[in-house]
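JOB MANIFEST
job_type = single_chain_structure
chain_count = 1
residues = 849
[input]
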Amino acid sequence: MTKVLPKRRGLRITVVTCLAICTLHTVNAFGGVPPDKPAEALYLQLGQVKLDPARVYQVRGASLDRSAIHISLEDGTIGFTQDVMGRITGAFFEGDGEVLLVPPNDVERRSMSLFTGMAILEEHFATAYFRFNDDAAAEMQPDLRATAEKQAFVERWGTTAQNLAQGDAMRLLETLSLMLPVKDATLPSELVKVQANPGDRFLHARLQGTKLGVFDLYFDSLAGEQVHVGQTRLTEDGVTYYNVWTSFSPAMAATAEAKSKSTSHEDMDKPHEDWVTVQHYSIATEVQPPKQIHASARLQLEVTAGGARVIFFELSRFLQVESVVLAGQPVEFIHNPAVEGTDLARSGNDRVAVILPEPAQAGQKIELEFVYGGEVLAEAGAGLLYVGARGNWYPNRGMVMAEFDLQFNYPPGWTLVATGKPSSILPEGAPRNASSLQTSRWISERPIPFAGFNLGKYKVFKTQVGDVSVETYATQSVERSFPNALAEQPEPKHSGISPQALEVLVPHRPSPAQNEGAVGEAAARAIQYYSERFGPYPYSHLALTQLPGHTSQGWPGLVFLSSYAFLNHQEREQLHYDPAGILLQESVPAHEAAHQWWGDLVSWNTYRDQWFSEGLANYCALMMLQDKNPAGFRQLMEKYRRDLVQKNKDGVAPMDAGPVTLGLRLLSSQFPEGYEAISYGRATWLFHMLRTMLRDSTQGSKSGSDEPFVRALRRLRQRYEGQPISTRQLMEVFAEDLPPSLRYEGKDSLDWFLDGWVNGTALPTLELKSVKFTPKATGTAVSGTIVQKEAPEGLVTSVPVYAVNSGKQMVLLGRVFADGEESSFHVSAPAGTRKIMLDPYETILTRPK
């Protein structure tokens, strides 16, 4: 199963935690920061700002309105923070307040209801901590009155407010950095002022609700989804989750109006535009097993919208930046390690802010060089290493197509495999290494969304499929934490002792290297199968490398396969896998190979579109299984169906966690199994429904590469390779050759499927009633009613209707739209038909029987 990758293009969320953070250059307080680090001083001031005793007031009837957010301070006391660069950036409130927020659509209202019990957020609160970068303090000024309780208020809440300040310091630095002095400026000062972003507005409220407890509410105009509400929850098992109650942009609120006017949804489906993009990475890394790397990364960036001073990057929490250089000159950066002795000292922080010497200009080319290192590797035993925070081993800005040139130096005896095509030629002018180190270079063959590498003491198996080389790398043994299977020891000959007395159970440790040939051949067959249907494999080779743990993960031209994927059938049985579990494990190489097309070549816009990558990769692997083992295919599809309704100890089923379009939001304290059950199981079913609908509704539909579903995927690849797509764009490709029988209300669109099934959670039950058979001259007219039970009002389902003839063979009569609870239908059947059935081959995601 593919590992979840939060780093890929997704929702911008700022989660508030009570942190006590300093930087490497800090001397107890921001006053100790060297004078050539004004951004760091500003960051520390923002993170340690106190309440100002001179700015404590009685407040009555004040309000803050941001998009769909309405906050009322009915009656109480409010204290504002001290100035930072002449601006008030926060406040603490105690008293009676209320927040009102109405989510814009059914999906978000259902999400809100799951966590709060209400479709809208309407909650009174007793205390609130605010951070803002705009004129929020001035907005409340008319409703403020003097109070004599200033010092008492600060003594009561000052420490709490100061502890909460750190959570938003980075976001406020993004705004206030425009007020920093311009170093060696090439722009006139008046132009610098013009470039400040007037649309930058930020408000964070941490509220102590009277019924819902502490929760966070955000409005951030620079985020892809500007409105966000969530809450941190600790489960009884000691696992911490961040539950997203709702998240949306103002564009979503206009969706219903746009639909009613039949306007395009294109603007609402575009990803949030980034003001700067990375186009090329050159990374030189020295790997020092078992834990250390030390690297120098040169990034070539292009500015698409000018005005900003801060560029944020993601980097593993186990790495520390030593320097950042721009155009040969060091620039200021902030990478905040944790205070010594705290839990954060072991986990660190994963955000790096680079401060430009002057505001960026549209069209500007920027080259940054990072030098960094740390213990990002982990050693799992038997010469098996892995990168603990894989997507963040180099500074990156999320899932954006770029070119990579990777060079690695590493000790002899190890094998290193990376994304890209291996090259033995070092870059011109690069220093030669001592003979004790190996050097390898890997260059991307086309822009790819991310890069990775793996290191181990591997044996290699090679095979070929057409022009594509498939290489499998595995170690002789599995990781230390791998469970022991008990194997029966053979009976010694001529012992004279009974066999029963000699039956001794000993631990059996699998050897992935012994099974790597079968794994490589399975991936090669998948590449051939997909290439024939979706177009050529995107790269010259595929490397499969062993990864400790249960999860597997695909990268362009490189796959990390769980050690469990290297087990043979007998070893899986010894670990007590059930038949469905064995089938899933056997399909992992094909699943990860499919990601080379769906996820790596064609990526997704936002977290709401990520479902198609996992669902489609999984379904492609199951298409292969269906061709050779139809019973096994049905077994897995039934497993996915039942997993959706399997209730946990709290009596809730994963199907209720939300639609596939909620992505990582499906993983929550209420639904720990929600993400896997829906992003894999339900998503797989959605593609199966699309495939069978198109097949059944097309006269003379062929199989293999000529079937409608496969033709649509081939178009998808040709049109969008190297680009991110939205769920709507995906549906539009499938709708291009829509047969008349799938045109609901005569429209050449799959909106009905998108609205009810992709953006829905339904698992209906289908029944027939009032069926009548009327003999005709050329056959039988059949009429009746389809009943959809346990389904939301207005759910539209394309239902295949079959006739059962005298030989008990079934004949497809056509597909009928079931719209709502009851839908009448009329179809023509062969003469003598006396029985019909709905979806006898179970191609619709209905409730288990």
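[summary]
The two ends are 27 Å apart (CA to CA).
The first helix runs from residue 38 to 48.
exit_status = 0
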